[in-house]
Design a protein that fits this description.
400 residues; mainly alpha; three-stranded antiparallel sheet; 3 strands; 56% helix; globular
Amino acid sequence: MLPLLGAASPQGLPAPASAAVQAHSEHTNFQCANGLTMQDVASIWVNAISPLSGEDAAAMCVPAVAIAAGSSYDVKGCEKKFQPDAQAGGVKGLWQIADKFYDADPLKQAEAVYSTYAGNDRDYGCLSTWCQEDKSCSEAHFGIGQDEKIMQTHRFCKGVWTAQTEHYITRVTELGGIDAIRSACSSASKAAGAGVVGNGKRVAATPEEAQLMDFLRQQLMTIFNQDATENMVSKLGEAMSMKGLTSVGDAAREIGQGDVSKANEICSLARVDLEGQLLKEWLSDDAAKAMMSMTPEQAAESKAEADEDKQQLTDYLREKFAGIYTGSIPDEMTAKIVEVMVSRGVGSLGDAFEVIGLGEDKEAEEIVTMSRLDLEPQLLKEFLNPSKQVQASLHRKQDA
């Protein structure tokens, strides 16, 4: 059994241990009568927490299932299922909580996890004053789908769930991965009328939805970096899907042509820092109309071409930087500067040649400034001046 953090606070922290760690290798083929599936656990969490916060119920579902997987899944006597009354020493249940908070009803167990352990309860919470004073206590488990915004008020931390993070990640893999858990949580959230799960990268269910998400990606990239963009695309796509908007046409009709309150509702549901008015404008301008004029197959082909153009630009600049810098620096500089260039509509080597190499000095200056690189703008401009190397690269693409 994992050690408990008994001396972490004046009251002592009855930190959940992991029965699964203790007995995973000892399970038998006996199926426990009250064993729960992953969908069961997702539904328990969402249904228990929704009355307290629909947003938190959905956003914390994926990590809640992951932590339960590391605590009570596939234990001795309950193969390939979650054991709701699994016990190890003084802790018990799906999330291995202290006996004083344990209840035979899994819904009550979830409530105790949310209200007592994951929040700022002064005696036992991950965000209690004393726990936050010790980083090893309040530090969140990463790699299990925790939402950065929600972690400000509720989190699954290392001081309470004491197994190594790698243990929980391994159990997530055994359940089919983050996407499998997200799918279960999305179903539970939709059934309960809760918020957007938003954990992991959402996979479009149809070509039309993929086209919608690609449109959102193109717009968001003009403002946000790539990581933030992908996170927001996933959340907005899920929010729109929950409202029955699964194509560019649907979104343009309901959001672009509708009242701004609809756009605000989508942004709020998705938990993204984006003005509803801006989303409405995106879905009512010429870019949306142009996307609607394309079939999903044409849009996918256009995206593939854009990706190829971006890769060619990336390869070219990496080669230039590698002629000056060593180690990982060329890759890091290339990634930053290409991200900014694409956000400004410079997505190919030909575009860069025309806009930066032959353009005004301020274009190179602004790109370098936005990239936050220690690079002379003039050097970037010289890289992209008319040259045999650039022309050769363009010819190679035409010949391919």
